Amino acid sequence: MTSDADIIVVGGGLAGLAAAASLARLGLSIIHLSPPAPPDRRTSALMMPSVDFLTRAGLIDEPAAIGHALTAIRIIDATPRLVRAPETLFDAAEIGLAAFGWNFGNQALLARFQAAIPDNGIDTRPQPVADYTRDGDLGVVTLADGTTLRAPLVVGADGKKSRIRAAAGIGVREHAFAESALVCDLELARPIGGTSIEFHYPHGPFTLVPAGGRRANLVWIDEEQVLKNARDGGPDSLRLALLERSQRLFGAIDIVSPSAIFPLSALSVAEAGRDGVALVGESAHAFPPIGAQGLNLGLRDVADLLDAVTATDRTRADWGVLASRDYARRRSGDLARTGFFVDTLFRSLLADIVPSQALRAGGLWALKALPGLRRQAFSLGMGER
Ligand SMILES: Cc1cc2nc3c(=O)[nH]c(=O)nc-3n(C[C@H](O)[C@H](O)[C@H](O)COP(=O)(O)OP(=O)(O)OC[C@H]3O[C@@H](n4cnc5c(N)ncnc54)[C@H](O)[C@@H]3O)c2cc1C
């Protein structure tokens, strides 16, 4: 059997498109299976290492052309708990940086990644994948219309419910949280500049992310019913809830986009690749949007995938299997570390027991007071390697 491409990438989200465009830029022939999806209204805070990777890989040019710099993070403990944390400000200047990272609209990023596809192009098809199997050295992908496509390496970037992951038999652990996240764009009377503001409430953070001028992108994590009540009670009910949650620190608030609610879950895989399959993005890992880790981790998947494919001897018939094995090895430490970090952080935010409150408050006091610990926290949060 002959192959139809070097690599088949499944999924047209940010991780899949970043993988397809950057692998094509290495000179590989790519089939990209990207069925139409509703507009992604989220925004992504990407830390400097991710922004540097996107620039190096040619996926974006000047971040300022499509994004907004994140120069500081302010954390306000708004819980009524017995042991509360001090208000804490992390400033990028402390680690000698102009910014921790940049905040981008997901649609702007998708458009930019699309524009980065090399002139000789990739073979993009709008059909979803119905099945996947392995035939010797080739992966065989079956489309919804029954067409089959073959390639040595298949990249599953098909999100949390990944069909490629299931068909490849890669084990997964998933836990659904009672909380969801509401996102929308806001216009504030008092601008937040480059500072991301996080109010910590008992069911999760209420975060205002800089979006330029008086704009901010809201990510509000709370019990799903609380979010639905606020949204479905009409624009005034949502606006009043936002004023209350923001403690009116930024004056009047206008809601300038439709709002969307995302159920939250945590997902991890036994291995990120094997037998000619590599999983990138949320097919391999998902967690609540705190500490801006999800897409940052997804882009580190793409970076390691490029390295694994480049390092593999592609004259061998079984190169897809070798590359997937090398990719899984490169990803294992980062996936375990980041998953543990976000899980611990999220559970500590929700914990109602006094020892956990004390640990979290004590942790923030220590972060406030100890420069060495602050530096370590910066490096962990930014996903430095
Ligand atoms: C509220 C919220 C805020 C966030 N904020 C941040 C942030 O600030 N910073 C950050 O780093 N991360 C953030 N994240 C995480 C980030 O948005 C995700 O990690 C990222 O968008 C996942 O991209 P993906 O391409 O892996 O998955 P998806 O965007 O889910 O894409 C999967 C794609 O696969 C396609 N697909 C599904 N099934 C098939 C099939 N059978 N065949 C073919 N295609 C298929 C779908 O159509 C879809 O296009 C946030 C997440 C949420 C929920």
UniProtKB/TrEMBL annotation:
The FAD-binding domain, residue ranges: 5-330
Pfam families named in the record: FAD_binding_3 (PF01494)
BP GO terms, sorted: ubiquinone biosynthetic process
Pathway: Cofactor biosynthesis; ubiquinone biosynthesis
Entry keyword set: FAD, Flavoprotein, Monooxygenase, Oxidoreductase
UniProt key word rRNA-binding: no
GO MF annotation terms: FAD binding; monooxygenase activity; oxidoreductase activity, acting on paired donors, with incorporation or reduction of molecular oxygen
Domain of life of the organism encoding this protein: Bacteria
Gene3D superfamilies documented for this protein: FAD/NAD(P)-binding domain
Sequence similarity: Belongs to the UbiH/COQ6 family.
Protein name as it appears in the record: FAD-binding domain-containing protein
Organism: Devosia chinhatensis
Lineage: Bacteria, Pseudomonadati, Pseudomonadota, Alphaproteobacteria, Hyphomicrobiales
